[in-house]
Amino acid sequence: MKVYIRSTGNISPQHSLNPDAFFSSRISTTENYFKSVEPDYDRFVDSKMIRRMSRIVRMGVAAAITCLRNGNVENPAAILTATAYGCLEDSSSFLRRMIEFEEKMLSPTAFIQSTHNTVGAQIALLLKCHNYNNTIVHRAFSFENALTEAMMLLQEGSGPVLIGAVDEITDDRHAILSRFGLYKKTGEEGRNIAGEGAAFFLLESQPGGSPQACLQDVQTLYEPESVGAVEHAIGNFLDENGLSMRDMDLILTPHTGNKKMDEPENHLLNSVFRGKACFPYKSLCGDYPTAAGFGLWLAALLLKEQNAPAWMSGIRFPIRQILLHNQNGNEHHSFILISALD
Amino acid sequence: MSAPVLIAGIGVVSAIGMDTGSNLQSLVTEKAGIGKMRWLQSAHAAELPVGEVNRSNEELANLTGLSARYPRTALLSAIAARETLLDAGWDKPDSSRTGFISANTVGGMDKTEEFFKQFSKNPAAGKLSQVVHHECGAVTELVADFLGIRHFVSTVSTACSSSANAIFTGARLIRAGLLDFALVGGADALTRFTLNGFNTLMILDKEPCQPFDENRRGLNLGEGSAYLLLASEKGMRMLNKNPYAMLRGYANANDAYHQTASSPEGTGSFLAMKGALDKAGMKATDIDYINLHGTGTQNNDIAEGTAIRLLFDPAFPKMSSTKAYTGHTLGASGAVEAVYSILAIQHGIIFPNLRFETPMKEFSFHPVTRLMKHQRIQNVLSNSFGFGGNCSSLIFSAA
Lengths: 342, 399
Known about the structure:
The complex is a heterodimer.
Chain A: E1 3-11, H1 19-24, H2 47-52, H3 55-71, E2 78-82, H4 88-100, H5 109-112, H6 118-127, E3 132-136, H7 142-155, E4 161-167, H8 171-179, E5 197-204, E6 213-222, H9 227-240, E7 250-253, H10 263-269, E8 278-280, H11 282-285, H12 292-305, E9 321-328, E10 332-339
Parallel strand pairs in A: 2-3, 2-4, 7-8, 7-9
Antiparallel strand pairs in A: 1-5, 1-6, 4-5, 6-10, 9-10
Helix pairs in contact in A: 3-6
Chain B: E1 5-13, H1 20-28, H2 57-64, H3 72-88, E2 98-103, H4 109-119, H5 136-147, E3 152-156, H6 162-175, E4 181-188, H7 192-200, E5 224-231, H8 233-238, E6 245-254, H9 267-280, E7 289-291, H10 298-312, E8 318-320, H11 323-326, H12 333-347, E9 379-385, E10 390-398
Parallel strand pairs in B: 2-3, 2-4, 7-8, 7-9
Antiparallel strand pairs in B: 1-5, 1-6, 4-5, 6-10, 9-10
Helix pairs in contact in B: 2-3, 3-5, 6-12, 9-10
């Protein structure tokens, strides 16, 4: 079942809260991490409340409120939050104090905000929204599985669903993941940079307001046995939607810049994606498990504007159909189909 | 009428037993599992009783063949998940559309705690093998790989209501025709992180807890794991057995009151219970038994009780909290209590609310205090309410 993307709100390492600014300048980094361009949060939430929120909660809440304002919806029928890592800053902070003070003299604040459902809960609290509320936390499937749930809710007759992908970079996350050899070292070529962001969407079963694009389908593929299985899954997925690769005007690819991690993707570029216009969306938001949220935002923007920033080359407009591919460690592959409005 | 969601298998590990049979035995013999902590190493060992699973990590690993270095939550999860599949006679990882939707609240935090002992002093120190399974989803995948389920895997985390939400995520996938089988539930091991977190909130009882009692003092944390194998009618035909029960109703609502406290009027709890009744097409009087969330904290029990009064007054069903047996198993509790609810239907029994002494002065009803046998139990309502205002209710019915 096709659903409509009524509006979006995205805080990312690019000027994504303001599409005009996004079109006019691309932000790049020389670091091996890419942090979000954060807005003045007073525009979204009472400043007393902001002070009590950790960075991931601020980003999530502000992106969600932007999305609701853009969509002119006050209270969604459901709130779905996807996060792979959850509230790392508060988890680390509580953990460090617990160890340092040997389980004595601890304050509850960090613990209270460390639970994975904090972002979704804070959005509900701000909106006084008693409706359906769920948090999905499955690595690089978190956002994709939340999308599946949103589409099922809409199929069951639900009103607008607010859904978002949220993950944050913290010093501890970056220090630990760097030790796994994931990221480039200073000046190193073939780089992979850590990323973060909060991308929210209002999805509807019927076109209300002025929708940006249609979300047609989403599929996950866990631990494919070979790159051949990935190719097969892509073919099946398009087929089930009555489409073929010929119909795809743009592929948003999950290239990270890390040679080893990009191996499966490079193979696809020479097989099923050969000759297609492709753009590596993680070059704009960095690498993190829920980056497909940024990818979906980019897809919806390109389909609505029927235009790309000057710095993004190789896309011939008009475009109707985008395939968004997410891939993480070759264990998690996902495919999202997005199309222009009829 | 939506397609039925059938319960084809169940499995549970908790402080009162390593499988469904031993849990049932403890429930009917009124044997609680709350006591002094033995395996969790904590500065609070002497003062805070817990509902601990009575096995070391090595013993749990031996039961499954998994590594004892895996997070304890994964070990607990693997045991109950495997029991569930065996119980259902499910052995079709490749020829069926089976999903694994599991819940937990802190993933591999027990190992991360070990890692941080070194890492917090020196960012180059600490064994990386201790953090590879930190994410909630990583714990689910260890077990998905153990079981051979790859078609659909997901993890839900909404604090204390996590596994209730995992259960109806699976039900929804079945009703949408996306899965034939959904192995749903959750797991959580005791960790210093959660123990200390709850301790800072001053809601832990230093004695065995007394849910829904006027003089209740707080909750005991527990640990465990439980799963249900949900099947569509088509899936059920692939198994050579009859279903235990059906999942008829489910609903999720948000209290939208406070990050950790429930609203005094129990708005979220009321909406979840009412929503589940509506979904099932039932009236309040159709419910024969409520398995309460009943943590034993001042705040939960008054909020839950107030919502029950609003929904059920004057005809209150029989009710009890089984957390006096198991402690509050957090992300596992919705699934542990779902299994107990199904056992109640299957055996026609209502479990007592252990240690209950004094009715709460606010209410005219109180929980069941002695095991009740030979009951006709058609419909059970099971509540799971949690931090972040996330409230969920499930309704199980005789098949």
